[in-house]
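User: Hey, quick favor. My workstation is busy. Could you predict this chain's structure for me?
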Amino acid sequence: MAHSTPKRDSASQWRLMWWQFRRHRLAMVSSFVLLLIAFVGLFCEFLAPFSPDAFSPRYTYAPPQRLHLFDRNEEGSLVFRPYVNGYKVTIEQAALRRVFTIDENVKYPVGLFVKSDPYPMWGGLFTLETKLFGPLKKGDPLYLLGADRLGRDMLSRIVYGTRISMSIGLVGVALSLMLGIILGGISGYKGGMVDNVIQRVIEFILSLPTTPLWLGLAAAMPNNWPPLRIYFAITLILSLIGWTSLARVIRGRFLSLRTEDFVTAARLDGASEKRIIFRHMAPSFVSHIIAEVSLAIPAMILAETALSFLGLGLQPPIVSWGVLLQEAQNIRSIVTAPWLFAPGVAVVIAVLSLNFVGDGLRDAADPYRQ
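Assistant: No problem, here it is.
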């Protein structure tokens, strides 16, 4: 057993948690990945080379192009000059379909901070006419992750889908957290009949089969609703179902703490119930709440992805990872356009990163453990 140091003995709980979390290498790497995902979702309009709805029938199911960073100049020296190669198109007589192959003799230059058509940033807060990167000549093909059945750039659509899919997890868990803390706290602190009623409600919700319940509630939404209202409805549905486990965790913490000496001393000192709960009890298990929340977000993301994949969640023109995976529901996608599964890779990376961060936070929740 390691000996305590004066620096450790005098450190605050949050500092001890940070020291413990920092030792979890995988959680630290995952935190960086999540920050990168959050950055992509926040600035998706600027980062995506094209609008998610921009299409070109000429390049339907075009395969991914490789981005070359260096090219040879007239003297034969290597210089930094990003480009992608063009396509050769042939007709497969047996299937009567176009087949794309990379044409290394054709080069389309790619640049940073290129001019683009005006587009609204952050819901129309202001307008930009510059993209982080894109083809230097308007109309040149740039499909780093391939194109879908309408010739839309998959990379741009995945970047745009990041905002919707990640925000549903964050907003949904925020609502679940609010319900869980309020109802779980009341249940654990009051006890008696109040506790029995809330626990029976929780048990009833937990007894319902989750997936059919999601499908039924999502299918009950009117078809004439605008996409934004459907987005908020899906978030609300996921939140109303996902608060129960968090409420039970919080209830258990309140039950174990309400008989502690410091709570009894605060009560005898005349402190109000509100002060006892928020000033004395809640800070002692806020780290556990953080760990639970970080592990609940992946479940929210997977739920939205599953609903949208089945066609009962978000629908076009909204772009989310689940909506994009609807494109991969046919045999042609599996055989000839495997790049349409790229949104699934994004889901896996986000969920794994959130789980690793949750594991790190759960370990750091007990900073005094050696």
